[in-house]
Amino acid sequence: MSTFELKTHKTGRTYSNPHFFILNKGLNSGKPLTNPCPNCFVVTISNEEERNTLFHLSMMLQIGGFYAYYLKGSVIPFISINDCRNTLKKGLKSSEIIGFEFQKHINAVSVISKKELQTVIDKMTVLKMAYIRNCFKVMQSKEA
Q: Is the pTM of this model over 0.90?
């Protein structure tokens, strides 16, 4: 079983071991991050392979709504460090039961995320071109 350490991140602190961050406040609580923010936990792991596995596992748990079950608070929802740790441990235990198939799922989610990002970029490019063309149409109609 993979071992990890989950702590509250303190602004300005740096980490030498492989690590990633998990957002702990807001409706996106549980979302893994590569860069820290003021409201996050830090997950430190012994090697890069385990880091990638836990990062994608956390992403799958967040997208699947497994962290959302534990959200507390009425104005700004948050997840406690123990709930986050336990959810990650349960997900990791389930992934180890699945075994090799889980790595296939991680690879599939990673590919889908990259394609999703590329789709958003493509749509933004089309939107930008449409906006620019519309701007010139407005300018041409004013000249006539």
A: no
